[in-house]
Amino acid sequence: MSATDRPEATDGGGDAPSRTAAGVASLRAVHQLVDGTPKILDDPAIVRLLDAQTMAALHAAREQMQSRAVRALRSHVVLRSRWAEDRLRAAVERGVRRYVILGAGYDTFIVRQPAWACDLRIVEVDRAAIQRAKRARLAEVGLAPPANASFLEVDFERETLASALARAGVDTDTPTFFSWLGVTMYLTELAIDAVLRTVASYARQSEIVLTFAQPAERDPEHDGPTLAERAAAVGEPWLSYFTPDQIEQKLRDAGFATVEFLTPERAQAEYFAGREDRLPVPRRTSLVSAVR
Description:
- By secondary structure, the protein is α/β, with parallel strands linked by helices.
- Helices cover 40% and strands 12% of the residues.
- Helix 1 crosses helix 3 (52-60).
């Protein structure tokens, strides 16, 4: 059974670390190197996490990193993490004390936690290959994970997300914040529904922030390959697309009471107003929050 046919998954599976996860990490590093201040996502840890060869290649490609397509993709990548972390802070303020990062990849929140996160229990969930590669690199560069963070390696060929979380002591009675970024487009609708039902089984006030891909729309000003086409070219094809109305219905059917989108207009007002660099606001809505 393939990863995308499994009833639950957080990414595409396989034994090797995801190439798209590495690409996302590189885009976050580029944001630190070439974009203006304030940063959409202030993430100095990602620059340390990437190896010297990757960083040298990024420095050498600084001019290419300012192309329209790369700026747009970079904007989406940093915005989604920033909004998830802002939603997490609001959840902490209302009493949530647990954070589960589904498909964590090379996310660096655990090693750059702000003071308001110190009482959180943080659980990173991902496949063994990427978890082990990340932990080895953290140790190599001296970024020791804090005591409130743990790693949950999951083989979704053998167990469901619900059973994996239970194995890690993540009980459903405690309000929990979940982030699930850059994953749903790689999964079947069956797999997406299973994860949403699992998250919706958690206590009231639990929340999930996730990204979704809207049905394909060719940008007339950009004749290069789309993001979906690039992912397919490295063996990680997109499988699922939803309009905002469709993803809202899916979330409500799973059991969430409140659904909120980060629209381009809202993103402009909250994160991009007054910027002097050329970092663009994402053109389409692809971020949603849902609360139990």
